[in-house]
Design brief:
This protein is mostly helical. The strands form two sheets. It has a three-stranded antiparallel sheet with strand order 1-2-3. A hairpin with a 6-residue loop joins strand 4 and strand 5. The protein starts with 20 loop residues before the first helix and ends in a 5-residue tail after the last helix.
């Protein structure tokens, strides 16, 4: 009697090979160049054919183009890595899912506010660090919201007449509203960068003080990565405040020197930003999608437990994503993702005592 054998299960597909560094660099350079071209076109069109563009601000505009190239280039290289690429895909998949939007319509806006704006995760570590980070974050955001459109010629302020104190604010050549310089709105517009500078000095000063006094921070810090960005932000803010001080208290004394010093500090800071610690500002929004993915998987997903002690670890979807990333990186111990951190430490310690330390007897 003939017998039929069941077909053997196909072996799992091998993980994809990571892209060659040269190919990634070329792709990043093309993406960064394209972003720079789009920015230049936006500057030309937004300033109405450069009619509203202030030639005195050319160094700032050029620095923003270099900033764009550096940010897009590094971001493209970052999301080309296996771990970041998987996180990026899962985040966008969770954010654009119609199923998630119907079940949790407020999840994405809530995470964006709490994770990006309010940054509640920092408050769990230290209230002082949270307050300083909020000053630094919103101060930089306010400064960028004012400086970049003015630099690109998108915002213009024109006097109503030679004898009146009124001004008109235009966006892309379209009048938005009018105001007087002695009104509350006029004062806020005129001193918006000063307010941003005070906020940045407060936040940067606290973190600089902490890195000089906190033993844990001092141990792991690096001068170029941790201290230079803080010193650069303080320099930009102080020189900006000195410009206002020169105009109000010194009748413009030393204004030209201070303006050149301020311009140099801003340009160098913008060019340095993509290569320093503050690049996490660009990376942080991608983490919101991953947080949404974890929230959705916790809502209706199966919770996996440690195969050693039985304690809950995380959702099956999140563990599967972690194991997939480890396979992409050709790490042959992805099954350990189903072991809780405590058991990993215990097993690692036992292996050290039985395998490593035994050789010293």
């Amino acid at each position: 009697m003939a017998t039929t054998s069941l077909p053997e299960a196909a072996p799992p597909a091998p993980p994809p090979e990571p892209a060659a560094p040269g190919r990634v660099a070329l792709r990043a350079s093309l993406a960064a160049s394209g972003a720079c071209v789009l920015l230049i076109l936006a500057i030309v069109l937004g300033s109405r054919g450069l009619r509203d563009f202030d030639s005195a601000l050319v160094p700032y505009a050029v620095a923003t183009v270099f900033l764009t190239f550096g940010v897009v280039h590094r971001y493209t290289v970052w999301i080309s890595a296996p771990a970041a690429a998987r996180l990026f895909r899962q985040g966008w998949r969770a954010a654009l899912s119609w199923h998630n939007l119907r079940r949790l319509p407020t999840a994405l806006p809530r995470l964006a506010v709490t994770y990006l704006g309010v940054q509640k995760f920092l408050g769990a570590r230290s209230h002082a660090r949270w307050a300083a980070h909020q000053l630094l974050f919103w101060g930089c955001l306010l400064a960028a919201a004012i400086t970049f459109p003015l630099t690109w010629g998108w915002f213009t302020f024109t006097a109503v007449g030679p004898d009146g104190p009124g001004y008109r604010m235009r966006l892309w050549g379209i009048e938005v509203f009018g105001f007087t310089y002695d009104s509350a709105l006029g004062w806020a517009l005129y001193h918006g960068l000063d307010l941003a500078a005070v906020m940045v000095i407060g936040g940067s000063g606290y973190f600089l003080w902490r890195r000089m006094r906190d033993r844990q921070a001092v141990t792991g810090q690096r001068f170029g990565y941790d201290l230079v960005p803080l010193l650069a932000l303080i320099t930009v803010s102080v020189t900006g405040l000195l410009l206002t001080f020169s105009e109000i208290a010194l009748q413009g004394g030393g204004y030209q020197f201070l303006s050149v010093l301020h311009m140099a500090s801003v340009v160098l800071t913008l060019v340095y930003l993509p290569f320093g610690k503050f690049f996490h500002i660009v990376q942080r929004p991608a983490a919101v999608g991953m947080q949404l993915f974890k929230l959705v998987s916790r809502t209706d997903g199966e919770i996996l437990h440690c195969r050693n002690c039985g304690r809950p670890i995380d959702t099956a979807a999140y563990i599967a994503n972690l194991r997939g990333t480890m396979r992409d990186l050709h790490l042959d111990f992805d099954s350990w993702a189903e072991t809780c951190p405590r058991c990993k430490r215990v097993l690692r310690g036992g292996a050290y005592l039985s395998q490593v330390k035994r050789g010293f007897r």
